[in-house]
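Running this now, will post back.
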Amino acid sequence: MEHTDILRGLIVLYGMAMLIAYLMRRARQPTIVGYLLTGVVAGPFGLRLISETAAVEVLAEVGVALLLFTIGLELSLEKLYRMRDLVLGAGSLQLGGTVLVSSGLLVWWGLTMRESLFWGFLVAASSTAIVIKLLHDSRELDTVHGRIILGILLFQDLCVVPMMALLPALAAPGASQAWSILLALGKSLAVVAAILVGAHFLFPRILRAIVQLRSRELFIIGTIFFALGTAWGASQLGLSLALGAFLAGIVLSESEYGHQIMADILPFRDSFNSLFFITIGMLIDLGFMRERLGLLVLITVGILLGKLLAGSVAVRLLGFPPRMAVLVGLGIAQVGEFSFVLLREGDKLGMIPQERYQMFLAAAVLTMMATPSLMMVAPRVSQWFGGRGRRRDWLAPDEKTKQFRDHVIICGYGLNGRRLARLMKGNGMPYVVIEMNARSVRAARAEGEAIYFGDIGNAEILEAAGAAHARAIVFAVSDPTVLARAISQARLLNPEIHIIARTKRIEDARELRRAGATDVIAEELEAWMEIAVRVMRVYGMPREFVAVQMAQFREEDYEMLRVLPLPGQPLRHLAHLLPQVDVELVHVLPGGLLVGQELRELDLRARTGALVLAVVRAENVLHNPPPDFTFAEGDQLLLIGSRDQLALAYELLQIVPADSRPK
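Update: finished.
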């Protein structure tokens, strides 16, 4: 009968979770909030639908262990090394600042130092699951602010390990608190080192033997054994289950099977992990929240504002502009899922009075529910802050930029920006780079690069970089929060400038066209076309045939980008309206067929289909020459037509009679 009750409870919980999580997603709320609300409704303070809570809590512990196991898998040492500046810089400043400020305020409010430090740990962590999902959905994960947020979240995830190791020391009574903390931390580090070394030598060998059998079922069983076995072993040595699973993930992340392990374990993690958040929701007392609604709102707003401030200050201290700092601060202002893990551990150690437990739970859920809305308004709010910055706030371009003429402005010094700058330097073309990572600017300047610090969303920065006199501007960054605005500002500064913009999605390209971009490069479109070319070449298709087909696909895919040009734009800005039309400049060769011939005698349109737009003679330009115009040596003809028409015209006009050729 007991087993039947457990099964019935799981059916009720998963059924309600499915329904409520579906409604949350429709309302653009995180699924984690749906799981928490499921626990509220089904728990002892709601409809009381669950009687066997102990069994559900055991399964929830498994979910937490698998959650930290997958986090460990994602935290490969190589990935951490690549992002070391952001992880160690922004992450340590944000986490340390949040813990210090929160603890200081609570000590001033009357709590003991160890209680204040514990609550500082709870507030400091942000939600990796929610924020990464929102950034991924909005295609902002690869933007500058997306990478900063990711670096901060990675550092927070890493710090869960020492935080959980410190909890027993913080809970221990006695006057020698500092000695207890150091002793507990030393013991924990020794146990962690022993587990890492043992697992490093044992796990890969066992996995290698399992893989040789080519049994997917055995591979999955082995993975779960490593995760839960290490978690159990760590608990026997005085650490938590979750911490042990995290260490197992770290070890396996460095193996060649890391990606396959992640793919196989995700369904189990999500299934059990949802139960953890449901059990957390069961502890929320709605009556308690209703009685203390005013204080609850005050605490929630305080957490959001405090974390916004801490995150923004951390980013500003690294040299990023105010707009970027506000974007990051709003992205990490919520309380994270690991705070619930720490909260449960603290509750087991008797560190939390029930009233404070309830208050933090409710406030944490409210901050999570506010996150989608905060990230939705973040671009507008950040632009307002960016516009408030004065020139003295920037390492603005120096006096040399005022001398730039007919140059190219490269916005962004990532991989695309660096390669373009290298190409232009190698060909002797003038350019200037704008980048808002102060460290990258200093490093590039030390190598002699023409690079300056600034935010492309600031019109003064574009003006200082010489946008009014530039030939072209290349936006080599894919930042949907500011790109359209920056393009519009560049167009206002210079109506004649050629603007090239990069975007991730082809759906965003039309907005950039409307903002004034001349050319828009949609990465997802160019990527599939390159893949298609490679596939067709595998089957031996001729290059000319492939090129023709790709040109047709390109025309169809970019059809949606064709919008009316801005008033006053020159002919080159109409290129997207005439996808098959080119303009070519042809010289009249000495002794060629054109010398001494009138335009009507040439009959170029009837013979090739191309038209003569203008003729350049010496320094004079004759637009739309009349039929009796006579060509001379050294003239330059500006022709317009399709690619095939221009090719025929070029062949015709370059013919030199045999008796006129040099001997």
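The longest helix spans residues 177-212. More later if anyone needs it.
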